[in-house]
Amino acid sequence: MDFIRKFFSDSDGPSERQIGRALKHAIQTHGDAAARVGAMERLASWKTPSSATALLRRFTIQVPQETMDLEEKQYTVRLLTEMGRVAVDPILNFIRSEPEVTWPMRALREILPPEEFIAALTESLENLGRSYTRWPEAKVAMIEHLPKEAFPQLRDTLLRFLDDEDDDVCIAAADYLAHHGDDEIRERLVETLLKAEFRPRVRGRILELFTDLELSVKGYRKKVEEIIQEPFYLTAKGTIKRRAR
What we know:
By secondary structure, this protein is mostly helical. The chain has helices at 2-8, 16-26, 33-46, 49-56, 66-83, 88-95, 102-111, 114-130, 136-144, 151-161, 167-180, 183-195, 200-213, 221-227, and strands spanning 232-234, 240-242. Strands 1-2 form a two-stranded antiparallel sheet.
């Protein structure tokens, strides 16, 4: 009897076959929505790392109906959040290896207290900063999710991202640093501006940041004067302004 009870019990969690079957339905882009959602709920109910990993795959597909896709991804965030800490490692593994990290980041932020969320994000960004990734958009999404409290831990990592080959990563890092920085960071932003001769989006965004935040180009006035173009101009005080159109 003990053997029979153990055989039919789910106490050891779902089998790989069960997870695989549920995953197949959860990522069926042209399948029935009810079957897809039911499979997602089944994966969440098992509350194992393997089932959380499978549930995260829902973020890798997009169903034809845009509104339905959005609602299902929002629901997936809710399901992952309800799974709790068992979903943390699968989420971290996902955001280190996949391009679409915005949705899982939302779940992670709901599961972890602020200090742990910042620590997890810091580690993930530092890892991405040290190695090549095919998905620069993952860096961008992580930077955009950074709370201001993360600045001290990520200062050096974000400074390195100013030299990233991808314009969007560089711009995201510049945005964050400009709003939280000190005089050294101001100088690094000016240097990035000057080096961006063949990166018009980067140069334009840094000019906008200096304009909006009224940052000075002190120490670099002559060099900035050589590269600045309309509608931007330098004031006598060394700040950048934009002419009204």
